[in-house]
Fold Valine--tRNA ligase.
Amino acid sequence: MTATISNLPSLYDPFTTEAKWQKFWEENQVYKADPNHSGEPYCVVIPPPNVTGSLHMGHAFESALIDVLVRYHRMQGRNTLWLPGTDHASIAVHTMLERQLKKEGKTRAELGREEFLERAWQWKAESGGTIVNQLRRLGVSVDWSRERFTLDEGLSKAVVEAFVSLYKEGLIYRGEYLVNWCPATQSAVSDVEVEKQEVNGNLWHFRYPLTDGSGYVEVATTRPETMLGDTGVAVNPNDDRYKHLIGKTLTLPIMQREIPIIGDELVDPTFGTGCVKVTPAHDPNDFEMGKRHNLPFINILNKDGTLNANAGEFQGQDRFVARKNVVSRLEADGVLVKIEDYKHTVPYSDRGKVPIEPLLSTQWFVKIRPMADRALEFLDQQNSPEFVPQRWTKVYRDWLVSLRDWCISRQLWWGHQIPAWYAVSETGGQITDTTPFVVAKSADEAWEKAKAQFGENVQLQQDPDVLDTWFSSGLWPFSTLGWPEQTPDLAKYYPTTTLVTGFDIIFFWVARMTMMAGHFTGKMPFHDVYIHGLVLDEKGQKMSKTKGNGIDPLLLIDKYGTDALRYTLVKEVAGAGQDIRLEYDRDKDESSSVQASRNFANKLWNAARFVMMNLDGQTPQQLGQPVASELSDRWILSRYHQVINQTTNYINNYGLGEAAKGIYEFIWGDFCDWYIELVKSRLQPGADPTSRRAAQQVLAYVLEGILKLLHPFMPHITEEIWQTLTQQPAESLQTLALQAYPQADANLIDPALEEQFDLLIGTIRTIRNLRAEADVKPGAKVKVNLQTDSPKEQQILTAGQSYIKDLAKVEALTFAEEQKSQTLAPSKSQWNWKTIGLVIVGLVFLRVGLAVAHTVNQIPFAGTFFEIVGLGYSIWFIARSILFAEAKLPEQLPAVLEAVPASEQTIAGVIGTVQVVIPLTGVVDIEALRAKLQKSISKVEAEAQSLRGRLSNPKFVDKAPTDVVQGAKDALAEAEKQAEILRLRLQTLL
């Protein structure tokens, strides 16, 4: 499986490597979980993608996040299970098959249920695994031996058990209720499958005449065709305009049906005219008013969206065609008052993509409140499950509070057929709303129940409808582990540990699972719910099929490799739950951000090659624990263990993006750019053997640790390098995926040392930057003067001066503070003659002073005064001349360390409180450098002037696309910034 060290390829090939290890992991069942093994359980059930689907960027993002968590906890020694599977997606599969039949000129009814389902299973066998195979390409560490499908035998058994149990408890019932009906799929849809869209529509005003001929009321509606099913008109009982009309009747136009005027506080007096038409069979609010006031319920719609016989002359017309025709008829009858433009919200079917119709229908329902209230108890009393980020807790809670009974029946054939059998012999061989039924776990059990109730001659027919897909998905966390049987998997891995999912299915799925789990298991199905954000396109917009702005993850995998895409998606997360933006060039199908991750992989690969080429064929185990013999060894070990702490803390708190960034900075910066460069001289053949071995030990130790740290994020490349580094034999089943995750050693962490090394690295980086700014040739060595008033900084720089010289190509390094301190002390020869001379001069002045003082002393009162003055002056002169004479000496004395002459041309920079000065005389052509900078400044300023001209032109700003104008503004800002930098560089040369 592995190459020898000497044969490690010079270039990393992600495609060969990734395919190899994906095959190895799966064939050897590396990720197969065993409930009998020790270790605290860590279990994740995959959010099951639709079997009809194909991999999109959301799948890739979510799978990458989960895999980081699962691989990390597996390496932490936990008994880990990530269980994969897919959802049967009733509506999606049903729609797809009916579309195929339509192309063949056939219908579902003509084909029959049995043959239709045969086609569905055939399609599942041939194409249903597309999404699963694509997930395999992501290298997800799932236990494929436990793969589940919501229609497989075990899960179907769980669904029947749940339905029958809820029915026996009175929590499932069959009844007539107003449901959301999708005419496109001809099925009921749940509230969470309804998408609200704002549309530009109309508000039609009609006059409904009072039956007694005393006048009329004016109503307004956005759905005029539904007036054919009106059974009343409602006003607010507190509305003074209409309260006197309550109890009277109206004659419904067209239908000539007498309908009452009712008073109901639900009516908003400010909407329209304050009078609203009441259609109980086709509006949720009207449905409630109809029940309160005992109004008739008249259904005017067929299930395909056409009007039925109750619509009179409009029977058979499509609902939208009928809308136009009804308005025309009302206008002809003289009752149309006006038509207003009106922007309002219309509910659309998430699957059918057409406006839904509230439809009175006999369906199966779950009484949601007992189950929702149980889930609320867990949340309020135990904060279970715990949401990350915490803000989603309120969203989840609010949803549980507002839930209504759940319609779980769907008028489809693909799915879990409802386990209810109707005694059709009691209703003329047909299933009607009044046909009696029995609920059972099997046809045999149903037969026995029906015989006992209806006699030996009873004829049974199973309910043709299937259950809402979310019913089976709600059981997923425990049905996949064997429930209702008490299996070892269920005992070990349930409740699961973490659910990773998008915020958009908190209502669809998360709430369903918590309600079902609370009811059937008495536990919440998972401890944590990690809600991730969306992957936005290059413009920061949500990807959608409608916009056509999706980015194909497989295309990027084919171009850059799986690890590069995975790492990019995780690294871009700037906080739990945040959306990420993926850079993408649609013209070239390229991503600069994924390319950067591919470059990171190459960086790691090349660093690993260098390390292994310098280990003399030894593995980290053979080299043993590192013995840090030098400052740089202790620094990199401290940084490594610091990063271990940082990474584990981030991952444990779902800071996956921050963890990825930290590892990236350590590998690319500390290890590759600094430590490897620092030890190169110690690896040379002639280097000190003890120092060389210490460098090898540290290199091997840190490299292996890096591979373990990075493995959850980039599993393929790390596995390949680790296998080669540790020289695993071909027949070995050892894998990096099952190694222990690094543990930090507090004894090796030295924050003070890291702080000191930061100063050294900053100094080296500053010198390099100054060299680049001054166009110093790469191979040329320079003299550098470091100036600081801090003894601590001077000590650090002195201790690390060999590193500064090696990595910054410094020929001579001087320290201004050191120069000052040494030149303050004069040499012995200087002290001998200068001190003697000064003492003699001092004595002469003293003698003259005494003579003068003696003469003056004869004058009354003056003597004492001048004695004091003379004595003071003598003391001052001697002190000034002798004690502080060395302050003047540096001007005459030669410096111990060479100083930079004041007249010499230099370039300077600052790191912290250290000033870095590089003399340029003799190193670069100053005049040529000035000319080059002048030329660059002129070019950039000309570009900036051109951009200012474009942006000051109203025609360009007003007519050009927004992104083009913004691009010009960004380019101007960049040009101005470049000009400023260039001018500063030139200024240092003047």
Remarks:
- The chain has five domains: 34-171+370-403+466-532, 181-358, 584-749, 759-817+904-919, 926-988.
